[in-house]
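sorry for the late reply, my laptop died twice this morning and i had to redo everyting from scratch. anyway the thing you sent over, i finally got around to it. pasting the sequence first so we're on the same page, its 158 residues, then the predicted structure underneath. double check i copied it right bc i was rushing
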Amino acid sequence: MQSKQVDTPLAEITLRRYEKPYNLNSRELVRKLCLSLGLLNPGDSRDIVVDVLYVLLEARKENKLLSSDGIRDEVLAFRKEYKLGDAGAAASNIRRQVRRLRKVLIVEKVKNEYRISEFSPLQDIFREKIERFLVPSIIERLREYLKAIDEDFQGKSG
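ok and here's the structure:
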Protein backbone atom coordinates (compact mmCIF):
# COMPACT_ATOMS: atom_id res chain seq x y z
CA MET A 1 0.00 0.00 0.00
CA GLN A 2 1.36 3.40 -0.97
CA SER A 3 1.42 6.20 1.54
CA LYS A 4 -0.80 9.16 0.81
CA GLN A 5 1.23 12.12 -0.41
CA VAL A 6 0.25 15.74 -0.27
CA ASP A 7 0.74 17.51 -3.60
CA THR A 8 2.69 20.46 -2.24
CA PRO A 9 5.34 21.74 -4.63
CA LEU A 10 8.84 22.20 -3.28
CA ALA A 11 9.34 25.04 -5.73
CA GLU A 12 7.37 26.51 -8.57
CA ILE A 13 7.57 29.30 -11.07
CA THR A 14 5.40 30.48 -13.91
CA LEU A 15 7.07 32.23 -16.80
CA ARG A 16 5.18 34.14 -19.50
CA ARG A 17 6.41 36.00 -22.54
CA TYR A 18 4.97 39.41 -23.37
CA GLU A 19 5.77 42.06 -25.96
CA LYS A 20 8.98 44.04 -25.58
CA PRO A 21 8.82 46.81 -22.95
CA TYR A 22 8.28 49.88 -25.14
CA ASN A 23 6.79 53.12 -23.87
CA LEU A 24 5.65 51.80 -20.49
CA ASN A 25 5.63 53.86 -17.31
CA SER A 26 7.44 52.51 -14.23
CA ARG A 27 4.37 50.92 -12.65
CA GLU A 28 3.38 49.25 -15.91
CA LEU A 29 6.92 47.85 -16.27
CA VAL A 30 6.67 46.34 -12.78
CA ARG A 31 3.18 45.02 -13.62
CA LYS A 32 4.51 43.27 -16.75
CA LEU A 33 7.33 41.75 -14.70
CA CYS A 34 4.79 40.43 -12.19
CA LEU A 35 2.72 38.99 -15.05
CA SER A 36 5.84 37.48 -16.64
CA LEU A 37 6.84 35.78 -13.37
CA GLY A 38 3.34 34.50 -12.62
CA LEU A 39 2.93 36.77 -9.59
CA LEU A 40 -0.08 38.28 -11.31
CA ASN A 41 -2.48 36.59 -13.69
CA PRO A 42 -3.68 38.19 -16.92
CA GLY A 43 -6.87 40.11 -16.25
CA ASP A 44 -6.35 40.29 -12.48
CA SER A 45 -7.79 43.47 -11.05
CA ARG A 46 -6.18 42.74 -7.68
CA ASP A 47 -2.66 43.86 -8.44
CA ILE A 48 -1.33 44.95 -5.04
CA VAL A 49 1.76 42.74 -5.58
CA VAL A 50 2.78 45.24 -8.29
CA ASP A 51 2.78 48.08 -5.78
CA VAL A 52 4.56 46.03 -3.12
CA LEU A 53 7.37 45.29 -5.56
CA TYR A 54 7.33 48.89 -6.79
CA VAL A 55 7.86 50.36 -3.31
CA LEU A 56 10.62 47.84 -2.57
CA LEU A 57 12.34 48.84 -5.82
CA GLU A 58 12.03 52.51 -4.81
CA ALA A 59 13.51 51.67 -1.40
CA ARG A 60 16.42 49.91 -3.12
CA LYS A 61 17.49 53.26 -4.60
CA GLU A 62 18.46 54.31 -1.07
CA ASN A 63 19.48 50.84 0.20
CA LYS A 64 16.53 51.15 2.57
CA LEU A 65 14.96 48.17 4.33
CA LEU A 66 11.22 48.28 5.00
CA SER A 67 9.10 46.57 7.64
CA SER A 68 5.82 45.05 6.52
CA ASP A 69 4.06 48.08 8.05
CA GLY A 70 6.48 50.38 6.21
CA ILE A 71 5.73 48.57 2.95
CA ARG A 72 2.00 48.96 3.59
CA ASP A 73 2.37 52.68 4.36
CA GLU A 74 4.39 53.22 1.17
CA VAL A 75 1.92 51.17 -0.90
CA LEU A 76 -1.04 53.17 0.44
CA ALA A 77 0.72 56.47 -0.30
CA PHE A 78 1.66 55.30 -3.80
CA ARG A 79 -1.86 54.06 -4.58
CA LYS A 80 -3.38 57.30 -3.24
CA GLU A 81 -1.02 59.38 -5.41
CA TYR A 82 -2.06 57.42 -8.51
CA LYS A 83 -5.75 57.26 -7.50
CA LEU A 84 -5.77 53.46 -7.38
CA GLY A 85 -7.74 53.01 -4.16
CA ASP A 86 -6.61 50.87 -1.26
CA ALA A 87 -8.24 47.56 -2.21
CA GLY A 88 -5.96 44.69 -1.27
CA ALA A 89 -3.77 46.80 1.00
CA ALA A 90 -4.74 45.07 4.25
CA ALA A 91 -1.68 44.29 6.37
CA SER A 92 -2.29 40.54 6.05
CA ASN A 93 -2.40 40.77 2.24
CA ILE A 94 0.75 42.90 2.11
CA ARG A 95 2.55 40.20 4.16
CA ARG A 96 1.22 37.53 1.80
CA GLN A 97 2.49 39.41 -1.25
CA VAL A 98 5.90 39.88 0.37
CA ARG A 99 6.00 36.11 1.03
CA ARG A 100 5.24 35.47 -2.65
CA LEU A 101 8.09 37.78 -3.68
CA ARG A 102 10.37 35.98 -1.24
CA LYS A 103 9.31 32.62 -2.66
CA VAL A 104 10.54 33.63 -6.13
CA LEU A 105 13.75 34.92 -4.51
CA ILE A 106 13.31 38.58 -5.48
CA VAL A 107 12.84 39.81 -1.91
CA GLU A 108 14.65 38.73 1.22
CA LYS A 109 14.04 39.23 4.91
CA VAL A 110 16.79 40.79 7.04
CA LYS A 111 15.84 40.63 10.70
CA ASN A 112 12.24 41.87 10.56
CA GLU A 113 12.59 44.01 7.47
CA TYR A 114 12.55 43.39 3.75
CA ARG A 115 14.55 44.43 0.74
CA ILE A 116 15.17 43.51 -2.86
CA SER A 117 17.65 40.62 -2.50
CA GLU A 118 21.00 42.12 -1.54
CA PHE A 119 19.79 45.39 -3.09
CA SER A 120 20.90 43.80 -6.37
CA PRO A 121 19.68 44.66 -9.86
CA LEU A 122 16.70 42.50 -10.85
CA GLN A 123 18.63 41.17 -13.86
CA ASP A 124 21.28 39.76 -11.51
CA ILE A 125 18.70 38.28 -9.15
CA PHE A 126 16.89 36.61 -12.04
CA ARG A 127 20.08 35.24 -13.56
CA GLU A 128 21.65 33.99 -10.32
CA LYS A 129 18.65 32.84 -8.31
CA ILE A 130 15.94 31.96 -10.80
CA GLU A 131 17.62 31.13 -14.10
CA ARG A 132 20.68 29.35 -12.64
CA PHE A 133 19.19 27.85 -9.48
CA LEU A 134 15.40 27.55 -9.39
CA VAL A 135 14.61 26.70 -13.02
CA PRO A 136 17.33 24.01 -13.41
CA SER A 137 16.23 22.25 -10.21
CA ILE A 138 12.62 22.20 -11.45
CA ILE A 139 13.69 20.94 -14.88
CA GLU A 140 15.85 18.20 -13.35
CA ARG A 141 12.98 16.97 -11.18
CA LEU A 142 10.68 17.04 -14.21
CA ARG A 143 13.20 14.87 -16.07
CA GLU A 144 13.10 12.39 -13.19
CA TYR A 145 9.32 12.15 -13.53
CA LEU A 146 9.59 11.75 -17.31
CA LYS A 147 12.12 8.93 -16.89
CA ALA A 148 10.01 7.18 -14.25
CA ILE A 149 6.91 7.40 -16.46
CA ASP A 150 8.82 6.12 -19.50
CA GLU A 151 10.09 3.17 -17.44
CA ASP A 152 6.67 2.51 -15.94
CA PHE A 153 4.93 2.52 -19.32
CA GLN A 154 7.70 0.75 -21.26
CA GLY A 155 6.18 -1.88 -23.54
CA LYS A 156 2.63 -1.00 -22.47
CA SER A 157 1.91 1.32 -25.40
CA GLY A 158 0.41 0.12 -28.65
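The chain has five helices and two strands.
thats about all i looked at so far, will dig more tmrw
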